[in-house]
Design goal:
Structural class: mainly alpha
CATH class: Mainly Alpha
Radius of gyration: 16 Å
Distance between the termini: 28 Å
Strand content: under 5%
CATH topology: Four Helix Bundle (Hemerythrin (Met), subunit A)
Number of strands: 0
CATH superfamily: Hemerythrin-like
Number of domains: 1
CATH architecture: Up-down Bundle
Largest sheet: none
Number of helices: 4
Helix content: over 70%
C-alpha cells in the first residue's frame, strides 16, 4: 500500500492541528506497513487502530472546540461527520478480527481515504475560518 506523504500544502494553519494531522498520517503509515508484514500479530495491529482512533478523537475534539469559538455556521453538521467517522472506525474494528486479510486491507484503505479526503478538507475550511476570526492566538501560524 502506498504511504501517506504529508505535503506541507496540506498543513492546517492552526499549529496544534498540523501536529495532530502529522501524527495521524504517521499512524496510518505504520498500520499500512504492518498489515502487509505477516510477522506482526493482529493484537499489535489492533492496538495501532486504537491509537489511530484516539488520535482522531483528540483532533475532532479540538476542531469542535474551535468551531464553537468562531461560531462556525454548521458546527452540528461537523460534529455529526466526526461521530460518523469515529463510528466507522469502531465498526471496522468490530468486523475485522483477521488483520492480514484482503477484507481488512480494503477496509483500512476506505478509512484512510475517508480521513484524507473528507476530514482533511473540513479541517482546512475550519482553519481558514479560524485564521480569519483569530484574535492573535499564538497557536495559529500561516502555511
Amino acid at each position: 500500500m502506498i504511504s501517506v506523504e504529508w505535503d506541507t500544502m496540506l498543513n492546517p494553519s492552526v499549529q496544534i492541528m498540523n501536529i495532530q494531522h502529522s501524527k495521524i498520517a504517521e499512524c496510518i503509515n505504520t498500520i499500512n506497513d504492518e498489515i502487509v508484514d505477516m510477522q506482526h500479530s493482529c493484537t499489535h495491529i489492533n492496538g495501532l487502530l486504537d491509537q489511530f482512533e484516539q488520535l482522531c478523537q483528540m483532533l475532532f475534539m479540538y476542531e469542535e472546540q474551535l468551531l464553537e469559538e468562531v461560531n462556525f455556521p454548521s458546527v452540528a453538521e461537523q460534529k455529526h461527520l466526526h461521530d460518523l467517522y469515529l463510528k466507522s472506525i469502531e465498526q471496522f474494528k468490530a468486523e475485522n478480527y483477521q488483520c492480514h486479510t484482503a477484507s481488512f486491507f480494503n477496509g483500512f484503505i476506505k478509512l484512510r481515504v475517508d480521513f484524507l479526503s473528507n476530514m482533511n478538507k473540513e479541517t482546512m475550511i475550519l482553519c481558514d475560518m479560524f485564521m480569519n476570526n483569530s484574535r492573535g492566538d499564538t497557536t495559529v501560524t500561516s502555511h
